[in-house]
Design a protein that fits this description.
This protein has 265 residues and is an alpha/beta fold. The protein contains seven helices and 15 strands. It has a seven-stranded mixed beta sheet with strand order 9-8-7-10-11-15-12, sandwiched between helices. Strands 2-1-6-5 form a four-stranded antiparallel beta sheet, with no helix packed on it. Strands 3-4 form a two-stranded antiparallel sheet. The mean pLDDT is 92.
Amino acid sequence: MEKDNKAANNRVFEGDYVTIALDQKRKWVVRIEKGKELHTHKGVIDLGNIIGLEFGSRIKSSGGTVFYVFRHSLPEAIYKFKRATQIVYPKDYGLILIFGEVVPGSRVIEVGVGSGALTAVIATYVGPSGRVYGYEINEKNLKIAEKNLEKLGILDVVELKIKDATEGFDEKNIDTAIVDMGDPWEVIPKVYNILLGGGNIVVFVPTFNQIERVVQSLEENNFGFIRAVECLLRDIEVKRGAIRPSMRMIGHTGFIIHAKKLVKH
């Protein structure tokens, strides 16, 4: 089976990362290799037997339980990341990317790499022709992030740096800057200098007090069209005959602030 035909035949190749799912809550992200096994509480799955299967196929464990094989899911893989810090939740990724106008080919600065979760999302969207420049001041965090990104095979579009972003950036003509740090107002003047005219800055902060300081700094540094939002996520229970909102939800995780660079005349 030729790898070049993967899109056409929609099948699993050796070396692929896939999601093996028992149900909505019990899922495993694994790399498919001959001779390797996945051990679960419902039995053992021979990963070599998955090679060649079509995505969406059923496979039985040694205990006879049916599992399903799906394409590797980025959010699920991120949940399996080794973490040095709290990660940005998947519910916030979409707004960050949309507000930041992140598209294939974008050149993006990320301030505060942490464990690399948001980095992975940005890299997936800008690649293969774009670039993510990740700034992090904690070397331990950066090493963890690098290993996490390597597992997803996206390091080729990411450049990680141990550097304090408040001292400035090495790049110019950046499309978007995404900032996730405790005192983001300290880096906003430096971000202005490296963004293209009309470029985007997206800031992620957890408190109202931080929103106020960020907005003040954005206004003082010639950013406009400022908007702050919060995304709340509530599932709907889809049991037939009893459709209702879930009793649990992912509430406050952080605020997303977006602004555009205005050119000085």
